[in-house]
Amino acid sequence: QVQLVESGGGLVQAGDSLRLSCAASGRTFSNYAMGWFRQAPGQEREFVAAMWWSVDSTFYADSVKGRFTISRDNAKNSVYLQMNSLKPEDTAVYYCAATLTLSNLRSRVGYDYCGQGTQVTVSS
Fold it and tell me: How many C-alpha atoms does 83 have within 13 Å on its Cβ side?
């Protein structure tokens, strides 16, 4: 069982940066692939970024590639999402997720656990 708690959301202006954090419970955090998803009002939850156990295995949605960076610190049982050059269309609730399987990292159905989310609002 893994519990995930996101933090770091807030209200920022277009062009600003934010760093989201996700703290995970459990002693086997390093075994999990981690992902970030987001959901804007009235829209489906969409994939943002994911990574395996090392920085060499990262994946991004085209809409955030070059602006967002996913990273993790296994010693702290945490995964992060650094978001730069934020745009109003990045406004959403951001969720982190964890999975032991690697076959479907770009889909929410590929994950076993998901946090409660943190709100990110980007004003123009």
Answer: 33
Using an 8 Å Cβ cutoff, are 9 and 29 in contact?
Answer: no
Q: Give per-residue pLDDT as tens, 21-41.
A: 999 997 688 889 999 999 999
Q: Which long-range contacts (CB under 8 A, 24 or more apart) does 22-27 make?
A: 22/78, 22/79, 22/80, 22/81, 22/96, 22/115, 23/76, 23/77, 23/78, 24/77, 24/78, 24/79, 24/98, 25/1, 25/77, 26/1, 26/2, 26/77
If one counts every other C-beta atom within 10 angstroms of the C-beta of residue 27, the result is: 7
Instruction: With beta carbons less than 8 A apart as the criterion, state whether 112 and 1 touch.
Output: no
113: Cβ contacts below 8 Å, ≥ 6 apart: 1, 2, 3, 4, 97, 98, 99
Q: What is the pLDDT of residues 29-77, one digit of tens each?
A: 888 999 999 999 999 999 999 998 766 789 999 999 999 999 999 999 9
